[in-house]
Specification:
Distance between the termini: 17 Å
Number of helices: 9
Strand content: 15-25%
Mean pLDDT: 94
Largest sheet: 8 strands, parallel
Order of helices and strands: EHEHEHEHEEHEHEHHH
Structural class: alpha/beta
Helix content: 25-40%
Length: about 220
């Protein structure tokens, strides 16, 4: 299972150094939150571009927690982003977003807030590369894992076509990573679990190698 460290959970005053802390790790996740679709604001396109340049060569996923996600796509493609997720809740016409993503040479994914069933995108599965199932949400608290949403992610692994990659995102800790891996998830987005550690790279390597899995089961 692939692990995507989320740079939005790192030290916002030192993104360059934070990228150095995960060294040559191949995957990176960038949340663009616009303060409209979500209460929080993370990165504008200029900052996202600087991160992409610093992380050149990595497999970069961008999660658009934003209204009008289609307007970001051409710029993100120019940054070398591999995969872009837009929220089902922000897409009046998902086919427009999915087609444009692929036309620009990027993989196309749809993300789902806790309230939205993954089955809402069933007509679009043949056009999608990935689904991103949120397992926490901006809750006015600590944005911890919401257990029913985690179970929803596990069900998605079983119900979506095998051609569609399933990734879980939000408040995941070692036991959840272990269960996702065992269930056959394609990936997991990890924020504080990685960047709050003294040695983020070692955490990623341990999780990848199953060392932490065994300790969590």
């Amino acid at each position: 299972m692939r692990l995507f460290p989320s740079i939005a959970s790192s030290n916002c005053l030192a993104y360059g150094r934070e990228l150095e802390r995960i060294g040559a790790w191949q995957e990176l996740h960038i949340d663009i939150e616009d303060g409209n679709f979500t209460p929080n604001i993370t990165f504008g396109l200029k900052t996202a571009g600087a991160i992409c340049r610093e992380a050149a060569g990595k497999d970069i996923h961008v999660h658009l927690m934003a209204r009008e996600p289609g307007r970001y796509l051409e710029t993100l493609a120019s940054y070398g982003v591999k995969t872009v997720f837009a929220h089902m809740e922000a897409l009046d016409y998902p086919m427009v977003f999915l087609n444009l993503c692929r036309r620009l040479g990027m993989e196309a994914g749809i993300a789902f807030n806790i309230k939205t069933p993954v089955s809402a995108a069933e007509p679009f599965f043949p056009m999608m590369d990935s689904v991103l199932v949120m397992t926490s949400e901006p809750d006015g608290g600590s944005e911890c894992l919401f257990r029913p949403a985690f179970e929803k992610a596990l069900r998605a692994i079983e119900t979506v076509p095998r051609s569609v990659k399933v990734i879980a995102d939000g408040g995941l800790r070692e036991p959840e990573v272990a269960r996702l891996s065992a269930a056959g998830a394609y990936g997991a987005v990890l924020g504080r679990l990685v960047f709050a550690a003294d040695n983020p790279m070692q955490v990623l390597k341990n999780l990848e190698g199953g060392k932490m899995y065994e300790e969590s089961l």
